[in-house]
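[recover] target loaded
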C-alpha cells in the first residue's frame, strides 16, 4: 500500500490541486471498517439533525452521500427527505418512492401521510387506489375514507360510520366533516348525539362531552357551567347546596338547581351522581336513595348501575345488591367485569356465571372470563361443562391458561425445550438486511425505529425462524426483543429464550443477600424491564428493577448505602441491590405474602393492604379484584413468570395456585375508599 501511495504522489505532482481528493479517498479506504462505520453513523446523525431542522437542501446532500457510501440506513434518510418534500411532491414521485422502498417498515407510514394529503384535496380516485394497500390502523384515514365513500355515494357506509361515532375516544379533526355529513343526511340522529354525550360523561371525558353538545339543537351553553359544577362539586349540585364557582379570577358561592324534567337536566344529574359515586360511594348511595323517584325506571336503573360499578371497584360489601337494582339495562363491559369481581370476593358463583354469560362474545372469550366461568361451573358441580372450558384454555400459554391446567391436575414443570435454533439458522437470520438495519438502529439509540424494523422483518417468520431471530437478539443483549420474539411462536417453543436469565450472578447474589425466592426476583425483573438496564418509564422509574428515584434514595439511605446519588440508579449492582432490598421490605410488610408484596412493589404498600378482604381470599381472587388494571396485570404476569422461572433455576416445582397462596383476611370491615388509577 505504501508503494501505491508513493507512485500516486509522483503522478500528481503537477495536478495536485485537482486530484488531492483521490489521495484522501485512498487513505479512507485504508482505514478499518469500524472507522468507516463511525463516519457513516456521524453522517446519519447529521441527516437526522437536518431533518429535525427541516433543512431540505442539507438533508438532500446527506442522503446523496449516505447512498454513495452504501450505508445500510441510507433509506431512512431518504424517507425523511420525502416527508419534507411530500406537500410539493408529484403523485408519480411518491408512487415511485413507495415502489422503491416497498419492503421497508416506513413505507406504510409514508403512504398514510400521502393519503391524508390526497383526502384533503378530495382526490378520491387516487386516495382509494392507494388506500387498498394501507395496512395500519389509523382513525384519521378511517374517517377520511368513510367521508369519501359517503360523498361518492357508491356504497352504504352508515353502519361503519355509526360504530365510529359511538366511542369515548377523542377522535381526530378529520372525523368532524364525516359527522357533519352524517347529521345532514340523517345517518346521525339527535338521540345518537345524546347517547355519545352520556358515554363521554360516563367515561370521564368532560371536554369531549362539551364538544358533542355543539351538535345538539337548542343546547343552552349556560349548561356547560352546570357540567363543571357537577364535575367539581357533584353533591352540592344534587342537593341544591351552595357550591364555589369561579368567575374570572374570583370565586363565588352559588346555589344551582338542575331540572329533572329536561333531557339536559337528567344527563347532568346522572353525571353528578357518577362523579359522586367515583369519589364518595356512601354519599352517592344516600343521595340517590332520596332522589331516585325523580328519574324514569330506565334512568333509575342506569344510576344504580353506575353506583354498583363504583361500589364493586371500592370493594363495597353491598355492591351485588346495587347490581340487582340495575336490572333491566345493558351493562357495559367494565360494569360486567366488576360484577364478576364483586361476586368472586363474595364467593357468589351463580352471579359469576351469569355475569360472564351476559358479556358480549368478544369479551366473554377473554382468558379471564373463560377461566372464572369454568370455576363457577365447577363450584356449582357442573364439572363436565367446566372441563370443556378448562381443556382448550389449558393449552394457552398465559396466567389463566396455567391456572386452567392446574384445575385439570396438570402441574407446570420444566417445559421441554422443543427446539433450539442451529448456528446455521441464526447466521441466516443475522445476514438479512432488515435484521442488520434493526441492530444498527438500536446501536444508534433509535429504539422505536429499531423495534419497528425488527417487527417488520420478522412479521412472516415461522416458529423456527422466530426462535433463530430471538437467539440472535439475545446474543446482542437485546433481551426485550428476544423475549417478545420468542413469545410469538405458536407450536414450537424455546423457553430459555422466553425466560432468559441474564445477570444471573448479580441476581442470585442479591436474592440470597435478601433471602428472596430467586424465581420471584427474575419474574419481577422480566415484567419490569425485560432485562434492559437502560429502561425508563413514563413516570420516571429507571433501570433493571424500574426504581422510582425517590424510592431508590429512601431505600439506599435505609440500607446504609453511603454516597448514593440518583445517577447511580442505572448501575446494575446498585439497581439490583436496591430493588431486591425493596422487595424484601414489601414482603416483610405483607407478612411474607408474595402476591401482596408484588402489588405493593407496583402500587404501594398502603394500597396492597387496603385491597385485603375481611376474610381470607384465594390469592387469584385478590389479584382479580385489584382496582387498577395495570397493577392487576402486573401481579398476574410476575407470579406467572416466577412459576416458569422456578424449575429453570433449579428450585422446587409447585402449582401456580400454591405459589400464590391465600391472602389472609383483615378481620375488620373493609375500608371503602375511592380508587383512581
Amino acid at each position: 500500500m505504501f508503494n501505491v501511495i508513493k507512485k500516486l504522489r509522483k503522478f500528481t505532482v503537477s495536478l495536485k490541486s485537482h486530484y488531492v481528493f483521490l489521495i484522501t479517498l485512498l487513505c479512507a479506504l485504508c482505514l478499518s471498517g469500524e472507522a468507516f462505520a463511525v463516519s457513516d453513523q456521524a453522517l446519519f446523525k447529521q441527516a437526522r439533525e437536518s431533518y429535525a431542522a427541516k433543512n431540505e437542501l442539507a438533508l438532500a446532500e446527506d442522503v446523496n452521500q449516505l447512498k454513495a457510501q452504501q450505508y445500510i440506513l441510507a433509506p431512512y434518510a431518504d424517507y425523511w427527505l420525502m416527508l419534507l418534500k411530500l406537500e410539493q411532491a408529484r403523485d408519480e414521485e411518491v408512487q415511485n418512492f413507495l415502489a422503491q422502498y416497498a419492503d421497508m417498515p416506513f413505507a406504510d407510514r409514508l403512504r398514510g401521510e400521502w393519503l391524508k394529503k390526497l383526502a384533503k384535496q378530495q382526490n378520491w380516485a387516487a386516495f382509494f387506489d392507494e388506500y387498498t394497500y394501507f395496512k395500519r390502523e389509523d382513525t384519521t384515514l378511517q374517517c377520511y375514507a368513510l367521508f369519501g365513500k359517503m360523498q361518492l355515494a357508491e356504497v352504504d357506509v352508515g353502519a361503519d360510520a355509526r360504530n365510529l361515532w359511538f366511542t369515548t375516544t377523542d377522535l381526530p379533526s378529520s372525523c368532524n366533516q364525516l359527522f357533519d355529513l352524517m347529521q345532514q343526511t340523517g345517518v346521525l340522529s339527535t338521540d345518537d348525539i345524546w347517547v355519545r354525550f352520556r358515554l363521554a360523561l360516563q367515561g370521564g371525558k368532560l371536554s369531549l362531552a362539551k364538544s358533542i353538545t355543539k351538535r345538539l339543537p337548542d343546547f343552552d351553553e349556560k349548561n356547560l357551567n352546570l357540567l363543571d359544577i357537577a364535575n367539581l362539586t357533584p353533591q352540592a349540585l344534587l342537593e341544591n347546596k351552595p357550591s364555589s364557582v369561579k368567575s374570572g379570577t374570583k370565586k363565588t358561592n352559588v346555589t344551582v338547581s338542575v331540572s329533572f324534567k329536561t333531557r339536559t337536566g337528567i344527563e347532568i344529574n346522572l353525571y353528578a351522581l357518577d362523579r359522586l359515586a367515583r369519589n364518595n360511594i356512601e354519599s352517592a348511595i344516600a343521595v340517590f336513595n332520596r332522589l331516585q323517584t325523580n328519574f324514569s325506571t330506565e334512568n333509575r336503573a342506569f344510576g344504580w348501575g353506575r353506583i354498583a360499578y363504583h361500589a364493586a371497584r371500592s370493594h363495597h360489601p353491598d355492591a351485588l345488591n346495587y347490581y340487582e337494582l340495575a336490572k333491566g339495562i345493558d351493562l357495559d363491559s367494565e360494569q360486567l367485569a366488576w360484577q364478576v369481581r364483586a361476586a368472586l370476593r363474595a364467593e357468589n358463583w351463580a352471579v359469576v356465571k351469569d355475569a360472564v354469560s351476559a358479556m358480549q362474545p368478544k369479551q366473554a372469550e377473554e382468558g379471564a372470563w373463560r377461566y372464572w366461568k369454568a370455576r363457577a361451573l365447577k363450584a356449582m358441580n357442573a364439572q363436565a361443562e367446566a372441563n370443556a372450558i378448562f381443556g382448550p384454555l389449558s393449552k394457552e400459554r398465559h396466567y389463566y391458561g396455567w391456572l386452567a391446567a392446574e384445575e385439570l391436575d396438570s402441574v407446570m414443570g420444566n417445559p421441554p425445550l422443543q427446539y433450539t435454533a442451529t448456528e446455521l439458522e441464526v447466521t441466516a437470520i443475522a445476514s438479512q438486511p432488515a435484521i442488520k438495519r434493526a441492530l444498527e438502529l438500536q446501536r444508534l439509540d433509535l429504539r422505536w425505529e429499531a423495534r419497528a424494523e425488527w417487527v417488520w422483518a420478522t412479521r412472516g417468520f415461522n416458529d423456527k425462524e422466530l426462535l433463530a431471530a430471538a437467539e440472535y437478539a439475545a446474543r446482542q443483549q437485546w433481551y426485550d426483543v428476544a423475549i417478545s420474539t420468542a413469545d410469538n411462536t405458536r407450536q414450537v417453543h424455546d423457553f430459555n429464550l422466553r425466560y432468559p436469565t441474564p445477570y444471573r450472578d448479580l441476581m442470585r447474589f442479591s436474592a440470597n443477600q435478601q433471602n428472596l425466592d430467586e424465581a420471584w426476583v427474575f419474574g419481577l425483573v422480566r415484567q419490569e424491564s425485560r432485562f434492559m438496564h437502560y429502561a425508563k418509564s413514563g413516570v420516571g422509574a429507571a433501570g433493571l428493577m424500574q426504581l422510582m428515584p425517590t424510592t431508590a434514595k429512601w431505600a439506599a439511605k435505609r440500607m446504609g448505602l453511603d454516597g448514593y446519588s440518583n445517577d447511580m440508579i442505572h448501575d446494575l449492582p446498585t439497581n439490583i441491590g436496591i430493588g431486591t432490598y425493596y422487595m424484601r421490605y414489601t414482603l416483610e410488610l405483607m407478612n411474607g405474602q408474595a402476591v401482596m408484596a408484588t402489588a405493593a412493589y407496583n402500587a404501594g404498600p398502603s394500597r396492597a393492604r387496603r385491597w385485603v378482604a375481611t376474610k381470607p381470599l384465594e390469592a387469584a381472587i385478590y389479584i382479580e379484584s385489584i382496582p387498577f388494571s395495570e397493577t392487576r396485570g402486573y401481579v398476574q404476569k410476575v407470579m406467572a413468570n416466577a412459576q416458569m422461572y422456578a424449575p429453570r433455576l433449579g428450585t422446587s416445582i409447585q402449582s401456580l395456585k400454591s405459589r400464590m397462596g391465600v391472602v389472609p383476611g383483615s378481620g375488620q370491615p373493609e375500608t371503602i375508599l375511592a380508587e383512581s388509577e
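[recover] notes: The chain has four domains: 2-152, 159-347, 423-493, 504-663.
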